Amino acid sequence: MNANELTILKDKAKHGFIVCFNKECYRREHCLRWIAKDYVPQNTFVQKSVNLASEAVQGNNCPMFLKDQKVKMGKGMIHLFEDMPRKMGDTVKAQLISEFKRTYFYEYRNGKRLITPIMQNFIAKICNQNGWDKPVIYDDYVVDYEW
């Protein structure tokens, strides 16, 4: 990780990011939660962490695993709706607002919240179901970790 990424990691660890202390996890070396545990300030008395007693985190498929690999995330989707026919765009917007809720939808739309690859696939699926046969192109793209 570069200096900027370490600064972000330290900030997240300091402000409640869920970390993990599972020494037995075989995927720990590539998990952001495991890496972040080293950056929790020593004077922190209480820290959010993965419950190691939970059966869900035992084994190979921990639901809290966050891969330490960067992905391409969309940023903003104002131009997507400009290119769609109005009726189609209104229908797609309504379905996305229903899924993400109004506040988050507008944060995604305006580029204030990044759009993960899973969400990009979901948005493309909604667009396709409503007749949009062109690729979904976001206003910008950012390569970052999926925090």
Characterise the protein shown here:
The protein is mainly alpha-helical. It folds into 2 domains: 3-57, no CATH class; 71-144. The chain contains 6 helices and 2 strands; from the N terminus they run ααβααααβ. Strands 1-2 form a two-stranded antiparallel ribbon. The longest helix is centred in the middle third of the chain and has 15 residues, at 86-100. The model has no long low-confidence stretch (mean pLDDT 91).
Notable traits:
147 residues; 2 domains; elongated
Order of helices and strands: HHEHHHHE
**How is the biggest beta sheet arranged?**
2 strands, antiparallel
Looking at how many chains there are and whether they match, the oligomeric state comes to: single chain
* Form type: elongated
